[in-house]
Amino acid sequence: MNYGTYPSPNGYPPPPPAGVPNMMPPQGPMQGYPQGVPPQGPMQGYPQGVPPQGPVQGYPQGVPPQGPMQGYPQGVPPQEPMQGYPQGVPPQEPVQGYPQGVPPQGPVQGYPQGVPPQGPVQGYPQGVPPQEPMQGYPQGVPPQEPVQGYPQGVPPQQPMQGYPQGVPPQGPVQGYPQGVPPQEPMQGYPQGVPPQMGTWNPYFANAYGGNPVGWYAPAYAPPFAVGGGKPPRDPRRYGASRTLNRMSLLVLAQTGLSFFWQIPLVLLLSLVGVDIYTNSLGYQWLTGILVPLSTALPFVAYLFFRKKDLTEYLKFEKVGFVGGLLCVLAGLGVVLLGNYPAIFVSNIFSSFGYDTSSAYISQADSLEAILLEIAVVAVLVPFMEEMVFRGVILSSLRKYGVGFSIVASALVFGLAHMSVSNVVFATIAGLVFGFLYAKTNNLWLTVIVHALNNFIAAFGTHTEFFFGDMAQMANVILMLGPIVLGVIALILLVLFKRNMFPGVGSPKYDGPSQPLRAGESAVAIVRAPAFWILVGAMVLYTIAMFFAAS
Prior knowledge:
single chain, 2 strands, mainly alpha, 14 helices, two-stranded antiparallel sheet, disordered N terminus
């Protein structure tokens, strides 16, 4: 009779099922013997209790059968009262279903009830179902009746281990690890209620069909969903907007300082007999003085008063000669290509009466004035602007995302140039400069590219002074030559030097682990009030140029 197996979650022997006879386990250390008693002599390890008659391999009884005597459990017929039988007599006939092969003649030693079990009962450590105090039960007593739903088979008398609440359930509520039904019907939780913290419980995971691996992850309702308030503010997006707003205010301070310093400097130059509108050399000196006083001064003060470490902003890491040369040529070529969309936009506005000329374009008429203009425009201005817009602005925004810092700093750089055509070109150039600096951490590369671009622009206005009738050809070569070289350098960079520009998964990547995505970056830019003040200033300047044309 097979009663099946009963799961025991706590590792203790399970309670006996109803209807099993009251039987005890063997009284002595008799595990591992088919007859239930140890052999009478030093014959350990033999199933029949006697040694084999000879070294005959391949027979379970250790001796070959005497004849065709099938049906005997011992393999040989009984000769006389034989040692090794618990009953002391040989079996009369093969009776199936008894471990000794014969029905017992009297009380069978080794069984607590005096009778052998009716059949092997699988699933019990002793081979028979226990009925009395047995080792392996936490309560030390057998259960009074089969009580379903309890790991020990009886209601616990004291706080029991294995229950998260430390007490058994109040009612026969099957399937809840906490022993109590949930306060409200919540689907998808093995405990019936959402867990307060992550726990490991393999018993409930396996015995009741819960999480297959036994882990219960914490589930918390967001505070704004419970209280009905507003969702929490994203600190990354908020920090990006606040930092961009601060940087835009510094750029506005640049514009204000340029007007502030211009008035006393013009008066000072006029006192010494220099008219900047007729004296080109005097105008270049004024420009050279205004650049550090207006462009760099607000940001130098920002770094000084906030006690910032310059090494966190101005980086000059090594990139190698070949890689650096390819970056400069490729960057210059892309920047020069940005002139064409700028010219296209300028022509559109010119058709509506927009004056694309500027009162601040120098008309140097001497070699000294030209050289001074090139020194200011192609050396001083690039270094100051790169230190400010890439060194300070981009580095301040970089902790929120490399892409966000490149785009945001480029937009601020473009708006700082005010004129529509200049805004378009400067924004494109700012994207190139920002990409180079963010990917290489070498500010010299952007300074050199910026300086070469400004040199081409400044020198291109004086080709007639140097080349005369061949000025037009010189301008074409001056523009197309760097573009062709830049395209070739860009292809070489993509094919052979791609590792110079590490991505998010690269070991050289030094950006944030959770950068702002494209949508989050756009929201951060839109929510910076000072950025819109820059846009408004550019719009007012554009409107003024329309009136200047009329």
